[in-house]
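Hey, quick one: can you model this chain's 3D structure?
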Amino acid sequence: MLTNSITVRLENMSQERFLSPLLSLFLEGVADVLSTKREAVFVFNIQNDTDVQGSILNVTFSALQPGGAPGKGMFFPSEELQEQIYLHRTRLRLISTQEVLPFDDNICLREPCENYMKCVSVLKFDSSPPFIASDTVLFRPIHPINGLRCRCPVGFTGEYCETEIDLCYSGPCKNNGRCRSREGGYTCECLEDFTGEHCEINASSDRCVPGVCKNGGTCINRLAGGFMCECPPGEYEKPYCEMTTRSFPGQSFITFRGLRQRFHFTVSFMFATRERNALLLYNGRFNEKHDFIALEIIAEQIQLTFSGGETKTTVAPYVPGGVSDGQWHSVQLHYYNKDGWSLVDSSGALRLPLYTAWLELNKKEPKMVSVGNPFGPSGEKVAMVAIDDCDISMAIRFGKQIGNYSCAAQGTQIGQKKSLDLTGPLLLGGVPNLPEDFPVRNRNFVGCMRNLRIDSKPIDMGSFIANNGTTEGCPAKKDFCTNGVCQNGGTCVSKWNTYICDCPTGYGGKNCEQVMPSPQFFGGEALVSWSNPDITVAVPWYIGLMFRTRRPAGTLMQVNAGPSSTINLMVSEQRVHMEVLLRHQLVASLSFPQVRVNDGEWHHLLIELKSIKDGKEIKYMAAVSLDYGMYEQKSVEIGNDLPGLKLQTLHIGGLPGERNDVIKGFVGCIQGVRMGETSNNVANVNMAQGLKIRVENGCDLADPCDSNICPENSQCIDDWSTHTCACDPGYFGKQCVDACKLNPCEHVSTCVRKPSSSHGYTCECGQNYYGQYCENKVEEKCHEGWWGSPMCGPCNCDTSRGFHKNCNKTTGECRCKDNHYRPEGEDACYPCDCFPIGSESRTCDPITGQCPCKGGVIGRQCNQCDNPFAEVTPTGCEVVYEGCPKAFDSGIWWPKTKFGRPAAMKCPEGSFGTAIRHCSDDKGWLAPELFNCTTVAFTHLKKLNDDLRRNSSRMDSERSKTIVRLLQSATNNTSHYYGNDVKMAAQLLNYVLQYESRQAGFDLTAMKDAEFNENLVRAGSAILDPNTKDHWDQIQRTESGTAHLLRNFEDYANTLAQNVRKTYLKPFTIVTENMILTVDYLDVSNPERATFPRFREIQEAYPKELGSSVRFPQFNIGTQGNKAEPTPDPPAQTEAVLEEEHTVSDRKRRHLEPPAPLPVAVVIVYKSLGKLLPERYDADRRSLRVPNRPVINTAIVSATIHSEGEPLPTVLDPPVILEYTLLETEERTKPVCVFWDHSVGSGGAGGWSSKGCEVLNRNNTHISCQCNHMTSFAVLMDISKREHGDVLPLKIVTYTTVSVSLFLLLITFILLCLLRRLRTNLHAIHRNLVAALFFSELVFLLGINQTDNVFVCTVIAILLHYFYMCTFAWMFVEGLHIYRMLTELRNINYGHMRFYYAMGWGIPAIITGLAVGLDPQGYGNPDFCWLSVHDTLIWSFAGPIFVVVLVNIVIFVLAAKASCGRRQKAVEKSGAIPALRMAFLLLVLISATWLLGLMAVNSNVMTFHYLFAVFSCLQGVFIFLFHVVFNKEVRKNLKNIFKGKKSIQDESSTTRGSLLTRSLNCNNMYTEDGAVYRSGIGESTVSLDRSAKSRSSYLAYTLREESGQKPSGSSGTAKGHTDLDGPLFHRNGTKGDDSDSDSELSVDEHSSSYASSHSSDSEDNDIDVKPKWNNERPLHSTPKAGQSTSNHVKPYWPTDAITASDSEDPGGTERLRVETKVNVELHPENKLNHVGEREREALQERERQTPTSMKDSAPASQPNSNHQPEQRKGILKNKISYPPPLTDKNMKNRLREKLSDYNSPTITSPPPNNNNTTSPAPSSVNIMTPSSRTPSLEANEGSRLGNHESGSPIKPPVAPRPQIPPGGIYRETNGGVAMHLKSGTVNGGNESDSDGSNETSI
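Sure thing. Here's the predicted structure for all 1898 residues.
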């Protein structure tokens, strides 16, 4: 900003008056002139000018370009600022109301530099001047101090910059382009179809490139190759849309960049005008003093005026006829310093065709050498101007000698000044309207200009700096002629803004349409006159005629009217002139000064006398038109005398004199004289009637060329009335002298006439000479360090980069110095540095730098051995056994060192300190440790740091400024840092930041040094570069390092925020490579203004990684800037307080402050600090969940706010919003918004925490966070190739497979719930297992990746933990149940499952609850919503799972062992073995699945993800196949459902509950008719004759079930006791409460009673039973619908059978209900599941009824009567044929043997109590036929069914009913079987019967 500033001078101005109130007006004026914003103008100095007298104020400012892109010329260059202010100084003066003076000349005006050196004005700035105060502004200026510097510009060389270089020597123009040298460069003139700076673009074959089409043209590629430019509308010319022509109306000009060439330049252009005087070109200095150059038209001739700062010189060539004829003329302007410039370019053509003329003038050879002039420029300056196609050399050198050839002229100016210093812009067509006295005679131009070239380079007339009224193109010079426009043989000729018709003699008019009678020739002594013609002057009245002449004067017509009025028409001084006289007094006069009419062409003159009304008066005017309006019509007032007068005399061609003489005679032709009331009235003037004196008719003159008056070598041209002698090419002057006779060629060359050449001759040069005049000598060989041909130029090889000073003499290519090499693609050479001991020579490979090594030696420099313990010797590599060998590494030769010892050497070149390298016994040399090295640039800083560390010096403001300035300089000049550099810089920065954080107000160093903050940030940015990470890591092993530096920067930012308003500090933004610091006022009312940094306003280029910002919300800050709610204070008091505050505020306000005390925000963005900070994290996992491989993937944003009012709350509401740009977008996942908490950890270093921060949203490149506090923020992410679900194929596979598994699990669960016949405990376990598995997979699928919301993620993780535990818990329950099925003697597959539910759902809940209570934050993490294998909480999941798996394996082993005993066949028949296999396989499958799931979410290995997906699918498939598809029970039930049949109660449900012993607990099997049957008699028995205690507990139990226990939806089973139903689960029971569950566990598996802890009471005396039972009977005599009963039995009958015992037909057939101590169960394969099978069974039963079977129906008192085959109704009906009746003795014996295997005592059972009034005696087995419908036989209503007893009737087979005598208790000892049968009738209608109507005891 400071270097791009300018200083303007204000007259009669003081500092205080400028600050208040004119500063704002000045800023507005400058902004208007520059077309930028007022805020973009920065005034940083106001200073009184002490070098002049008077009150002149110097104001220094800079300005930002409007809409400038960052990094592309942010500020206006000072040169452009000066040009704009210079051009619009008048407007600036009007807006600012201040008198703006011209710019003052700088100190370079004195030309203090020698030779060709250029003086450059250098600005230095002093930031220590005091404040300037006005009424409203406190201003701290920065004084610019002018200095100068001399430098050798481009194009010059030499030790003293004394030699100019022809930069065309290198042949830079391609494709045969012609190189034109210019000062400091060259211009390539390209052939057709080629363009570009070096003619490198071929429009016919290349493709479009940016910028090839100018002025907004569109480049279009052609299909066949090449491109074309489509130009916008306007005067743009093909092929590249450039503009070459502009039109200049009056008071207009156009501005281009000024001519900065100081020693020579060429300007050429073409122009067309009819102005006799005009300004074509002007270029001077900004104050219009000293140096300038101006090209004008003076009296129709070109005139150049120039000055080098001392005197003025005029150069004026002459062209016959002048240049103001409206035709195109070309002008060439050449300027050069005589001794300082070689006049030829590399092609041999003269830069200026003046060389021979220059030789003639000086009469001596120039001081030229092959490489230019080594003597520098001189004080002799030459300027030359040439018009049109002029041979400049002939005109200047021989013009006077040959005469009449002055189309070119030159002038010389001699003085002390050597150069032409033009600082102002180049102006064409005029100068701005400034009060200065420009050194020109004209300030305006009307016409057109085109083809402007500067140093042979075409200038696009559309690329101007400023345009003041000029327009595109030149409409006045277009072709106006169209076909047939001229009549009567006329020829059309385009003229200025119109056309004319060159008509034959006798015709006239615009289009030759009028006949012009009486053409007459007047020879100067001729006259036609009339006396008293009959003509009266009327109004309107016309006079017209046509004439042609070659004479400059003569009378055309004189009209005398009345006594004293005269009208004269004449040619005077080559112009038409009209006069009106009255009494010889001039009344009116009019002429056309810009039109010469003596050109021999026909001109038409028309005068109209007319009247106009001016108010009440009438004025008479004469309007004169020349050539049909081709020139502007002119009018003049002629008085009131002429109208109405009659003509007295009329004279044409002259005036009569004495004695018939003619005076003022006209020489030429006149025709078409007319006069009258119409413009074409020719009747009034008849030439034949007039008096003629020596007048000739017609206008045909003799050809003057017939007299052969022209000299030889010329052509005579008839120009009507005269002739022109045009010399042949090569001949010049009046006498057409041969140019070769004058011999313009030099150096004994030969002049040869060549008519086809530009000037008709050429110079044939001798050997070693070239050029247009053979003036230059070809050098055979360029000097050392130069190359080229024919011109020589310097090699420009950078010797400091290893190049040789000499280059290739032909190509100029630089080569490396000897023993250097140049790597491919690099622009520097490096020394070979071959180790002399290990290499064969000092030379190396020119590209790789590989030195020729001796045998066994390796390394580029041949300084290493492949063996780390070998040393390079003259003979090769030799192993060193006692230590590490001498070796070269890191630029240091390390000496031979013994093992285990370090080597200390000086640091590498360019640094100081000691480098350490350790010698290891195992690895040899370790890596060098260069941490303690210090770069030379940090030398002075080291001393400052040591002084501060030792407290030998104190920190103060001056030292602080010095430290940051030196730090910025050192870091800016150092490309590679050593560890000590970084450490020392960090320590110094910490000292400075800590000191500055303790300062306040103007004590801050930033208030005293304008560059302090920038130096501070740049130094911090340098040492926080990512390349310093290794150094920081080593520093942070012992110190805080970057964390301490971050804390100090935060403190300093807070200090800045507190002092911005106090110090009137203007908001600023500092942008560096690794940091951005923004200080600004916070206006939360505008969201864009509340975001920092404001990147849209940052003009500098900044890395995209720094593109992170913070957006502040609307804080509740109690400041004046906030609108407050109306308070209930009294209005008067409020107004008084506000008025007082307003007054105080007015006294303190300064204009740089915002109008309201807005808060101040300071934001620092660190690009790479996140990588440098130590990897420390908050140990509290509630604060931060650290990913597996954490990395900070954004810039760190530090924010602080200071409010003058109430401080911000600790917890911000609403929070601040942070917008981050990700540093890396690939392999970065799981973002966590964090901040650096300085209180975390020990030592005060701090660590990352996420308290109060959360992620708002995220895309691939940006992340938004919100935090409720102020500190340093960032985003922590995981280094991962993908996020879960991000990989589309994996996502598809996972969702598909798990969804399939979920679907199958859901189907399985629904089927297991709906199939009523499957209401067993085993199926209930399966249902619960399926449910737990279903929910675990569902939660896993939907929630495993819900990491965005911490609470949701935690809940998901807890649910996953619970459901996974439940899954394995039910696996354990299943294994336990199967084991019990195999080992226990009773049927445990029915009954209550409370114990199982407690195991399956309760224990996991307890474990999960304990885990949640102990470590709730262990659930979920940024990676996934589950437990991490890296967290100890995983053992709350893995531990129980491991135990379950281990116990299940043990159970499976025991169960398998139990299933392989003597009852193997029965076990296989029961289906326990398949269930065991399925449970084991399912345990393996589920364990493998969730192990893979755990590994998948904890690992990025794709295999785990795919395997988990496959195994998840297999779970559902496995369960569905083996629990549904391959399960015969399920298939049969489904078949019934699909066929529309009702389900039949089979043995699987009926006999398991109450009749038969569990098949899985029995091995007693026999085979009959190919089927396997089980007869489980004598195994697990249960007393179903309830004791008093059990009966007394029934009421309470029934009430309990009615009140609260409902069927469990999760288990799908009916309500009932669990397997261990007992007092533990019946807290409200009494001592008499009992449990009849068959599934109860018992210590003795051979026990005869498995009831509860009170079931032994069944063996007590039953005398007490009756009264208790009778008392309870009325309550349950009639079970009610919906009333719960034990053992899964509903209290209703077959009409609504949804319990475990399904219904039969709803008929009223008699049914038998049997309770038995003999539990016999058929294998599931033999169950009858279909109605058709039941009908066939009934038919078979009828056929089997024999007397034997009747006989077997013995009375119950007989031994073994319970084994007699008999037909039974109810639940025992299937046992009639399956198994068949036990008729043979062997079968009975086998039963006895089976029973005796258990060595059980005699099983007794109390006699039944039957209080039923219908059948008081004990009932026997009652087998009923369908037709027999006997009254219901009721047992005790209070008695319940057994634990798994079925209460539903079964349709009996059709057979005779045997008679069974009544009996009581029957016993058989010694292994016998006692069976007690109770028979009853089941009422099929609405009648209700007793639960236990039939009972059989064994």
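One thing worth noting: The first strand starts at residue 6 and ends at 11.
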